[in-house]
């Protein structure tokens, strides 16, 4: 229960920082630029961290499965590679959103 509470609080904090970055005024303000950069950095940081943890857990499960039943190592490896592609796409989405925050910003010339 505590784990889900911490995840929910982190998501709320990240969304709050990102929304402040998108809702910043149109005047040149160093605080708004800093908030935008902070939102982009935290977005890609949390995205990459979550994907890294997911990949590590997937590799752990695959290695345990191969250790228990070596005959199905080909099927497990194929499924693991497919899962890694999906996990890595989430990290790429986080990178794209961070770039949108940085380069679709009226403060960055």
Written description of the protein model:
- Helices cover 83% and strands 0% of the residues.
- The model has no long low-confidence stretch (mean pLDDT 82).
- Helix 1 packs antiparallel against helix 2 and helix 2 packs antiparallel against helix 3.
- The longest helix has 39 residues.
- The N and C termini lie far apart (45 Å).
Strand percent estimate: under 5%
Number of helices: 3
Structural class call reads mainly alpha
Helix content: over 70%
Poorly predicted runs are none
Could you report the average pLDDT, rounded to the nearest whole number?
82
Strand count, sense and closure of the main sheet?
A: none
C-alpha Rg (nearest Å) = 19 Å
Work out the number of β strands.
0
Q: Tell me the span between the first and last alpha carbons.
A: 45 Å
Bulk shape: elongated
Write down the secondary-structure element order.
HHH
């Amino acid at each position: 229960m505590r784990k889900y509470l911490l995840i929910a609080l982190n998501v709320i904090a990240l969304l709050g920082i990102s929304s402040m970055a998108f809702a910043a005024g149109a005047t040149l303000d160093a605080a708004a630029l800093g908030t935008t950069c902070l939102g982009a950095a935290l977005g890609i940081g949390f995205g990459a961290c979550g994907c890294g943890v997911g990949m590590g857990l997937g590799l752990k499960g695959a290695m345990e499965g191969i250790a228990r039943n070596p005959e199905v190592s080909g099927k497990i490896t194929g499924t693991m590679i497919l899962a890694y592609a999906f996990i890595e796409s989430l990290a790429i989405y986080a990178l794209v959103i961070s770039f949108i925050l940085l380069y679709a910003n009226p403060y960055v010339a």
